[in-house]
Amino acid sequence: MKIEFPRKWLIIYALISLLMVIFYVFFGHYLSVILSDFIVGNQSLSYTLLAWMLIFFTAFILLRAIYQYSTAHVAHKRMESYGNRLLSKVDDTTNKKSESFLNALYVHLEKYRPFEQVFIPTIVNTMVKLVVIIFVLFFVHRNAAIILLLTAPFVPLYYVLVGLQTRDESYKQASQFDGMGTLFLNLVRGKDTVRYTGSKESVKGRLEENNKDFVSQTMKILKYAFQSSLMLEFITILGIGLVALEIGLQIIIFENITFYAAFFALLLAPEFYNALKVLGVEFHNGQLARGHLDKVNEWLEAPAKHKEYRAVSQSGDYAVELENVDIGYNEKRLVENINIKFEPRTINSITGPSGEGKTTLLKTIVGLLPPKRGDVRLSTMDIGYISDELYFNDSTLFDYLSDGGSGEEAVLGILEKLKLMESVDKLKEGIHTPIVNNNVPFSGGEIVRLKIARVLLKRPGIIVMDEPTEFLDAETESIVLDQLNEFKEFSTIIAVVHRRRLLNISDTHYHLENKKIERGDI
After folding, report:
1. In three state form, how does the secondary structure of 436-489 look?
2. Best label site of 76, 136, 344, 493, fewest CB within 10 Å?
3. pLDDT tens digits for 321-369?
């Protein structure tokens, strides 16, 4: 099995493990000497030997704690790296598989964490421990070392066979988990359709079938875990028993082994087999985790949808410039040969019939959708995007609006300007009211203004808006338009609009229709 893990950390783990087992061996050595002198030699307790025993035992405990902390820290950094790589895969098509992506980011990645935090360190620590114990026992009691060598291979042979099967079953379980999540999310989104079309029984049957398959897959994994644990216990008890029997025969019948050698061998043998047993258990858990990594890798190994296709222009003549740009999805061209230059600190409106590519054009400017051809140049990558989709992350109203960059005074100020304070004051916790599961206690028009407020607080160099005055009444629309006029002093605003009032304050107007975009009549 190939372990995808930095060699540097494997070497560090091995060195720490070597020191740990050396400290344990010396602890066992001094303990055996003390007991041999005290019990067999009838000597008084040596405080010097006792001090050395305690020193090595304490060093062993401290080093084990350092090892656990280090492995957890490295695993955390590695999971953070995986998460960042996953986030880099986000593009305009991700929302079509949002449940699968979020599972990879939050569920599968977290279930993979034990593989790097526990399994890999356990492998390294166990292999070092086994080698050192065998080496020491060859000098202390050779027969015990030979018994360990003959019985030990049965453990890895068994758990490799079972563990690989576990990984396959885990991958199937992870896939079913994604499928269940996607099915449930789609049903929640389409609950009204289910109610009105009388599809309740059909939907119920699909949920029950998916749940039954998931439970069946889980039971298979538990069966492998039980079999693995049972066999590991059996082999461990058998191995320790054989060592104890051989030492007993040497003491009683042959009388050719010292108390020191017998006790030291009996101290190291259980440690040897317990290490193998722990490795067996962790191998099962590790393969379970690897099944989740396979789901993560499906996203990581998928061909990148696009690299950064936008360039930052240093001239400063234009805020956004599109030259010979074609946009669309797959093989379909929505707009062809776009040549537009939006000047700095202007309001620019785009109109046109639905489905002609207006929103797609905005996504190309924002960086969510690469053009089929042509060049996109910007004066800055500092862009605020107000989409036509209503979605809020789980946080508080203040956290959403400030986005970590604005204080409470600034947030209250923008809410006041957009005439939202009256609605906010009605909330029990005001601007610190939690927003959970996209449950926003505002009307459609108020939500639009909240989204506008969030972008305006950031004061980006470019603001891209999709239907910014949607859901707004005439009075509220006037308030928003006044704000946009003010923010034109530091930002270039590009907006897809349907309503005439925003056109009245626009510096330029483009109309998109029949795959062409042309200057309109303002």
Report:
1. CCCCCCCCHHHHHHHHHHHHHHHCCCEEEEECCCCCCCHHHHHHHHHHHHHHCC
2. 76
3. 888 888 887 778 888 888 888 888 888 888 888 888 888 888 888 887 8
Q: What's the whole-model pTM score?
A: 0.53
Token pair belonging to 185 = 């999310």
Distances in whole angstroms, Cα of residue 75 to Cα of each of 120, 372, 457: 10, 40, 37
- Looking at the DSSP bridge assignments, the partners of residue 510 are 350, 519
| 17-32 tens-digit pLDDT | 999 999 999 998 899 8
pLDDT in tens, 50-102: 999 999 999 999 999 999 999 999 988 888 887 777 666 665 555 555 555 56
Per the structure, the complete domain to which residue 220 belongs is given by 7-297
Phi, then psi, of 22 in degrees rounded to 5: -65, -45
Q: What's CA 158's distance to the chain center, in Å?
A: 32
Query: Six-digit token pair at 94?
Result: 């991700």
Residues 479 and 379 in one domain: yes
Q: Are residues 476 and 426 in the same domain?
A: yes
Of 245, 267, 297, at which residue does a domain stop?
A: 297
Please, how many CA atoms are within 13 Å of residue 214, restricted to the half-sphere of its CB?
Answer: 14
